[in-house]
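Please predict the structure of the following assembly.
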Amino acid sequence: MVEKKDVRQGTLALMILKTLETMGPLHAYGVARRIEQISDGLLEVQYGTIYPALLKLEQEGYAASEWTSSENNRRVRNYKLTRAGRKRIHQEAGEWQKTAAILERFLSLGKQGITRSTT
Amino acid sequence: MRGLRILVYRLGGLFQRSRRDHELDEEIESNLQLQISDNIAAGMSADDARRQALIKLGGIDQTKEAYREQRGLPLLDSLSQDLSYAARVLRKSPGYTSVAVLTLALGIGANAAIFSIVYGVLLQPLPYKDPGRLVVVNETKKGPGWSGFAMLGVSPPDFHAFRERNRSFEKVAAYSPGSMVVRIGQQSERVDSLQATHELFSVLGREPMLGRSFRADEEIAGNNHVVVISWRLWQKEFAGNGSALGRTLTLDRQMPSTVDTEKYVVIGIMPPSFDFPVDSETDLWMPLTVSSDPNLQGATYLPMIGRLKPGVSTAQAEANLQSIANGQKPYQWMIVLDQLADNVVSKVRPSLWMLFGAVVFVLLIAAANMASLALSRVSARQKEAAVRLALGAGRWRLARALLIESMLLATLASTVGLLIARLGMTAMLSIAPSTLPRLANVHLSLPVLVFTFLAAVVTGLLLGAAPAWRAGRTDLQQAMKEGSPTLTGRQPLQTAMVGFEVVLAVVLLVGAGLMIRTMAKLRSVDLGFDPHHILTAEILLPQGSYSTGTQQLEFFDELLDRICKLPGVVAASGGTKFPMSRGRMEFSLVHYGDDGKARQTLVGGFSSITPNYFRGLGLHVKSGRDFTDADNADATPVGIVNEALVRIMWQDRNPMGQKLPNGFTKQAVTIVGVAPDMHFDGIDKGARPELFVPFAQKPWGFMRLIVRTERDPLALAPSIGAQVRAIDDAQTLDKVRTFDEVLHDSTADRRFYMLLLSIFAALSLVLAAIGVFGVVSYAVTQRTHEIGVRRAFGASDAQIMTMVLRKGLLPAVLGLIVGSVGALALTRVLRNLLFGISSTDPLTFAAVPAALIIAALAACWFPARRAAHVDPMAALRYE
């Protein structure tokens, strides 16, 4: 059985932004559900943490929100990506990929090193 | 940039909380509903769907709390909570609050008032460009006999040499203060004036706001009838009209020049903030022609100022000028350079810092007092603290709440303190001695307000530190135990604080005691004559209408004659100075030993006096004869010397008939009498060598009158003034004072420091006594039960009272010991102000402990009596 992981600090923001980029304007519940779906159940998202995270993104200017009416006439707060948010996704995505690549290399290098020293 | 944006948003989040909370409720609820419908669609029951959604959310309240923390500034949020809590606490105990605010306000207010003087006089830069580079140049000599030499400036030939050859100054200027009568139309008014070489304004780095300053060629006689006027005079005489430029002023020179009444063209108007010399209220500045007579090499009367080149130190410039001075002939003077600012305030600097130190002590005592009171309150509120701790408040949060409470107190106190400072400052300025410079600068300026604010913050921290520390250490178990005595009556921290208060109070009391003793000593100085019933006044004759000695002598002869004939006048005489008036005329002579070699140079005071000068004061010449009317201009030049001069010049030999050359009379004077030593330079100063000559043989256009009267001297002032006008309508009496006033003024500076120190000391004594009272009284309250038990077991009243007294006397005695040692070390800063006693005066050091012990006993008395009257039954039942 695969262990479920909590969301790492800092990565949640990027996930939210990416979700907003692919899905367009979305409410908090939708964002949380989408992140869970994408992670294929590997991530345990406590939905309550989404609200402050969205607020933070809004304060930072990466996301904006507006109240709209949903299909059953309920007022829903929808969040959407701003231009700054879009820029941040690309920036952070690039950095993540770079970091991942470096780590990947280090980790595989380490194994080789150990192998070599034992032979 | 983004950081700023976040801050703005978060600050915004502090407002409209209810609307934002409402929106959050709605958002969470609508999202929950979406989730619930999804859950139902997935086949759950309605109840289950909601339950699952809530689990998934992780709790509505937790979400809201996390959201709120992100929304506002959590620190600020809780701060404002603490603040309103503190305000509630303070409002709930108005007695404590008002006592604390008043006590601290006195401390902070006194600090603000004294700091306003320290800042205005000592710290605020002089109103010139880059004033740190302005230095005054003086010439003097070193060695015995020269110590009393007044440093008035440099000699004219040296000034020319310095001006041409120095390498250290951007520019130098010489100047000469005087006074003039300005005539505009029918009106005339005497104003202070200054003649200065043309560089003066550029040395100071200030230029006229209208018109121009002097040109170099305006120093040349014939071109020099130009004048720069003050903003004040411009307003008064020209109503601030720009057409004043180019107008002529009719000026009558009075001192010390020989120029007659002249017309001067106004070429410039200085801005209102300009004043030079510092503190002078000078209204006219005119070009000065510095004499190029090489014979003046010995006369160092010319004040000189210079602006150092950037990077040149005072010492370097001093060395530079010294090397120039060493090449001068026939005298080589020693050069002394002082920063202009030092020159102005160096005399009062130690005293003002001493006052500031004293007032800081008062504030520390007030803060310690209130801190110890606050500690008692914390002990009483321990249960409350324990409850808050148990409910999950952090210890830091608890401590911080108390710190905020004390900060709030200090802030309130500083507001009240500023009011006190305003009143105190007005009162202080009204009694400030004339020796205190730059008083016009003293007000509640921005730096004073900043200082007051900082003082309040520091006070708040000092006040809150101990209670906060104590609260942070609250022992939950202990505090929550029902009925257990909260404290066992031992309060080491409070006791230590009261001890600390006593230490500071002792130092202040000793300081005040020393000053009070000094004033008493000054009052008991034997002047050698009766100072009551004497009127003094000054008359300055204009050089224009009284240019010759004969004219001057005629005027004063007639005036003294007329005054003598007035009813109520016992005697009238005059001279260029009288006791305590200080004189600026000095002579120097070389003292030759028996071997004919020069042994030392003697500097003494010179004055011209009328025949009955000594008799008028009630003194008699010690030996030889007094001057008579026969000692006139045609007779042999004679002189009278004082005993101090005889002691130095002739020791035990007879001075009569000796010849004394001096710089004032053409020939050496023959000594005909010896006068008693008098206090010319101040009641605290010993007698310097003095030479007197008959006014008739060396007249001046200036006289200080001494009129002995039968009754109230001031009552005669109008009729004396009338005699002056009867001789010459245009002349007036100046500075009319009784001799009692002269005496009073001569000790004004010490009285000022004595008064302030005494006020601070009295304040500190009362505060320390309150501190002792607080600790003892609190201990009695806390130990009522114990005292009841003791009494039940038969302790006597005396035993109970002794127990309580010991409680209060312990910190008093310990503080007294430490404080006395501290006072021995610290009161040395008073040395320059003391007179007739040493800074370890035994009487003071005995009286202060006595006063302190009495105060401490008095403070213990009421709590002790209360303890002795504790009813054992009531105390035990209370349990």
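The radius of gyration of chain B is 38 Å. The mean pLDDT of chain B is 84.
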